[in-house]
């Protein structure tokens, strides 16, 4: 590599903050929340193959595309105190986390209808789902506030970002509800591609750990049901 070549900063994870301010340091970590959520999306989609998570992820991607378009349409600069790259209107962090928190809340409160409790599983109650939704919304609000504290955005840019995220979440929730009612989601799950990928739609009625946990509980009961436990089962296999 030519030593005279200018070096560039990888802005995706590069954050300006005041090293002498603990709050500013915390806000710098909060700037990485969208990247962390992307990792969570990818992990859950790969491990669970749940249609609801895929739909939510598609909506999140669409929300980011909307933010990309709005920034280049409005072309409003960031606050003068910040030398960050790109336009500032609307805040992508605020929009991203607003979409995620509102989408999660809508799912927990309006779409998630858990099956009755079983010996190995107790579903989340309404108060528990309200609490989780509240925590998600508070976390989104803190991330949005942190963008103002770090001078990456002014209050109006953050407000527009939050508004765009909320509108995107509510709008996409309505679209997916329509697709569910009309049978399009089930049609997609019956396609060859979805079957090959082992896509499913269980999280609407049960949590992500319930199926695997119940299988494990049955296996434990089977092992303990034998006279000699695991050793007895191993002898029978021989």
Report what the structure shows.
The protein is built from 10 helices and no strands. The radius of gyration is 23 Å and the shape is elongated. Helix 4 (92-111) runs antiparallel to helix 5 (126-149). It is an all-alpha fold and 238 residues long. The chain has helices at residues 22-30, 33-48, 51-74, 92-111, 126-149, 155-181, 184-189, 192-196, 210-225, 229-237. The longest helix has 27 residues, at 155-181.
Secondary structure class reads mainly alpha
State mean pLDDT (0 to 100 scale): 84
Task: Give the count of helical stretches.
Answer: 10
Low-confidence stretches: none
How much of the sequence lies in strands comes to: under 5%
Q: Main sheet, how many strands, which sense, barrel?
A: none
Amino-to-carboxy terminus distance = 63 Å
Secondary-structure element order, as H and E?
Answer: HHHHHHHHHH
Helix content: 55-70%
Q: What would you call the shape? A: elongated
Rg, rounded, reads 23 Å
How many beta strands in the DSSP annotation?
A: 0
């Amino acid at each position: 590599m030519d030593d005279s070549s200018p070096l560039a900063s990888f802005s995706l994870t590069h954050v300006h903050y005041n090293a002498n301010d603990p709050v500013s340091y915390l806000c710098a970590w909060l700037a990485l929340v969208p990247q962390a959520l992307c990792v969570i999306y990818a992990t859950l989609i790969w491990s669970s193959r749940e249609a609801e998570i895929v739909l939510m992820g598609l909506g999140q991607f669409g929300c980011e595309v909307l933010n990309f378009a709005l920034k280049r349409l409005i072309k409003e600069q960031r606050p003068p105190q910040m030398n960050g790259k790109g336009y500032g209107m609307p805040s992508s962090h605020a929009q991203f986390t607003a979409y995620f928190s509102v989408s999660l809340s809508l799912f927990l409160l309006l779409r998630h209808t858990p099956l009755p409790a079983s010996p190995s599983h107790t579903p989340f109650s309404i108060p528990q789902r309200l609490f989780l939704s509240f925590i998600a919304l508070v976390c989104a609000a803190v991330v949005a506030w942190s963008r103002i504290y770090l001078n990456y955005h002014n209050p109006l840019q953050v407000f527009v970002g939050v508004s765009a995220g909320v509108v995107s979440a509510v709008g996409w929730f309505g679209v997916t509800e329509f697709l569910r009612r009309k049978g399009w989601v089930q049609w997609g799950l019956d396609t060859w591609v979805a079957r090959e990928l082992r896509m499913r739609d269980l999280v609407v009625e049960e949590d992500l750990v319930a199926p695997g946990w119940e299988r494990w509980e049955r296996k434990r009961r089977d092992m303990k049901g034998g006279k000699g436990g695991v050793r007895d089962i191993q002898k029978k296999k021989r």
